[in-house]
Amino acid sequence: MTCKPTPIRCNLSRKERKALTTLRKRTDIVIKPADKSSGTVIMDHSCYVNECDRQLNDTKYYQKQSSDPTNNKVQERVKEYTARLHSDNLIDCETLRYLSSNSEPKAGRFYILPKTHKQGNPGRPIISSNGHPTERISEFVDYHLKPLVQTLSSFLKDTTHLILQLQKLGPLPDNALLVTLDVSSLYTRHRYRRYEEC
């Protein structure tokens, strides 16, 4: 006797599915998840584009490119560096193929997530690297570093982990100070980011 797979049932009504389809087709709005919350933001398309332009036109952090360097410069550098890693016996043939095989590389795509917790709701800049020549290298580095980072004494997984670590300390001295730090615009302050003219 063979078991038939259980069909996947949608938990939305026909009206709800129709409403989602209608929303997807609208070009006058942009729907994004809110930064640092579980909310969803619906923005006027022109407001969204204006915020993107405001950020990208800041030449302190971004620099216009006359052409897309993804296919020639970036892809070639990835191939060059991964070939060197292989010739130095740091990676095997299978890893070399995985890291350097991207037949149709794409440039990073810029978008923003609205910060609903900040005055004026500025956007957090994000660069999607799906399909970018460095995407697989990032995966490779993340895979190998993740277990090492977790062994560091300063490693905190999440808020719950922080609370557990604080509880382990026991009562703090009367003159102890609990301090939190927040870096303003960490992404753009890290170094120049480049983007391609559309």
Short description:
This protein has seven helices and six strands.
Note down, in words, how this protein is organized.
The protein has 198 residues and is α+β, with helices and mostly antiparallel strands. The protein has two domains: 15-65 and 111-128, no CATH class; 69-106 and 134-165, no CATH class. It is 41% helix and 15% strand. It contains seven helices and six strands; from the N terminus they run αββαβααββαααβ. It has helices at residues 14-25, 45-56, 70-87, 93-100, 135-149, 159-169, 186-190, and strands at residues 29-33, 40-44, 62-65, 109-114, 123-128, 193-196. β1 (29-33) and β2 (40-44) form a beta hairpin. α3 runs antiparallel to α4. The longest helix has 18 residues, at 70-87. The radius of gyration is 23 Å and the shape is extended. It starts with 13 loop residues before the first helix and ends with a strand. Residues 190-198 have low confidence and may be disordered.
Strand and helix layout:
Blueprint: H1 14-25, E1 29-33, E2 40-44, H2 45-56, E3 62-65, H3 70-87, H4 93-100, E4 109-114, E5 123-128, H5 135-149, H6 159-169, H7 186-190, E6 193-196
Parallel strand pairs: 3-6
Antiparallel strand pairs: 1-2, 4-5
Helix pairs in contact: 3-4
Keywords:
198 residues; alpha+beta; disordered C terminus
Strand order, largest beta sheet? 1-2
Query: What's the structural domain tally?
Result: 2
**Bulk shape:** extended
- The proportion of residues in beta strands is 15-25%
> Helical residue percent?
40-55%
**What is the tally of beta strands?**
6
Radius of gyration: 23 Å
Integer average pLDDT: 86
The main sheet comes to: 2 strands, antiparallel
Secondary structural class: alpha+beta
Low-pLDDT stretches? 190-198
